[in-house]
Write a structure and sequence with these properties.
It is elongated and about 65 Å long. The C terminus is likely disordered. Helices cover about 25% and strands about 25% of the residues. With about 350 residues, the chain is α/β, with parallel strands linked by helices. It binds flavin-adenine dinucleotide. Flavin-adenine dinucleotide (FAD) binds next to helix 1, helix 4 and helix 7.
């Protein structure tokens, strides 16, 4: 790793997208280098799955697998095939000239012919100590209903959803399949969500809305038992018994370190070509939740991580760099991609 010898491929991030990209790149003899990040608040190397317990929907684990264990295993698989790992956050990149320059927090800058950005999108949390503690220990607090809502733990209980946008509406509707009641807690007196989504929630017989309310404490030591609420208008406090809390107040794509060099959507998600992971800069690919405000799942992140590595591999092969074999066009639809 030196500024004078460009890397074939640098992968930034450490969730399912980054490690899958690394597995593919390592197996293609590209000797990938991964910057896996550092612990900062709820952002941990290993990504969002480090904040959850049982993963029941990742193929291959019929008995479920814990989020941290799954991430340990995919990282180990990438390292086993020859991936090198730097446990630092990338603080900036220079994509204006080739090879690209990647600068981490502490060690020296590296240059690279191709870059995969797989830095995810941080789920926003309310920010309470009790909330994060229960989320980390599998105590009934989550930021993803589609991921966790179907677990037996949440069945036939009163579940709370915090938020007022489309995501919160989707989460609330999804939870009506399992909950005895869904209580949507919102700080204001009307939803920000689209009218259609809001109406669906407001007219659902299992849903109740607590307007002008915010959660100030999640109650329970090992498992959630209830919430302490504050009225945002008159400041009065109350408590409600719940068997689960789903925080649905949005995500922040981790793209700040790119300094605006990559095109993003109005919400900050990196724009990629249709059914590709290529960005507006040739040789720079993006994968996982940082490009995805729609599915936000481990398996879709892993899928786009695979795509990014294959596209980078083909770009390198096309330019005669690295050891990537030149694949016959027509071998797969992706092999026909322009590099
Ligand atoms: C509570 C919860 C439960 C979930 N449960 C499930 C589930 O059961 N099943 C499922 O399929 N999905 C689940 N998800 C969604 C799933 O976690 C995400 O879709 C998936 O982790 C996204 O993967 P990713 O590779 O895009 O990156 P992420 O998992 O978001 O990880 C990216 C990581 O990259 C690192 N990083 C960020 N910036 C930098 C930088 N500048 N330099 C270096 N590194 C950086 C950080 O460590 C960050 O954590 C859950 C999400 C949450 C929040």
């Amino acid at each position: 790793m030196s500024a004078s010898t460009p890397e074939n491929i640098v992968i930034i991030g450490s969730g399912p997208a980054a490690w899958t990209a690394a597995i593919y790149a390592a197996r293609a003899n590209l000797n990938p280098l991964v910057f896996e990040g550092e612990p900062v608040g709820t952002e941990l190397p290993g990504g969002q799955l480090m904040l959850t317990t049982d993963i029941e929907n990742f193929p291959g684990f019929p008995e479920a697998i814990s989020g941290p264990e799954l991430m340990d295993r995919v990282k180990a698989q990438a390292v086993h095939h020859g991936t090198r790992v730097v446990s630092e956050l990338v603080k900036q990149v220079d994509l204006s000239q080739r090879p690209f320059t990647i600068t981490p927090n502490y060690s020296g800058a590296v240059t690279a012919h191709t870059v995969v950005i797989a830095t995810g999108a941080a789920a926003k949390w309310i920010g309470l100590e009790s909330e994060i503690r229960l989320a980390q220990q599998g105590g009934g607090v989550s930021a993803c209903a589609v991921c966790d809502g179907a677990m037996p733990f949440y069945r036939n209980k009163r579940l709370a959803v915090v938020g007022g946008g489309d995501t919160a509406m989707e989460e609330a509707m999804y939870l009506t399949k399992f909950a005895s009641e869904v209580v949507v807690i919102h700080r204001r007196d009307s939803f920000r969500a689209s009218k259609v989504m809001a109406n669906r929630v407001l007219t659902h017989p299992k849903v109740r809305v607590l307007w002008n309310s915010q959660v100030t404490e999640v109650l329970g030591d090992e498992f959630i038992t209830g919430l302490r609420l504050q009225d945002t208008v008159n400041g009065s406090t109350s408590e409600i018994e719940v068997g689960g809390l789903f925080v649905a107040i949005g995500h922040t794509p981790n793209t700040k370190f790119l300094g605006g060099q990559i095109d993003t959507s109005e919400h900050g998600y990196i724009k990629v070509a249709p059914w590709r992971t290529s960005t507006n800069i040739e040789g720079v690919y993006a994968a996982g939740d940082v490009i995805d405000d729609y599915y936000r799942q481990a398996i879709t992140s892993a899928g786009t991580g695979c795509m990014a590595a294959l596209e980078a591999e083909r770009w390198l092969a096309h330019h005669g760099i690295g050891e990537a074999p030149v694949l016959e066009t027509g071998e797969s639809s992706i092999a026909k991609a322009e590099v």
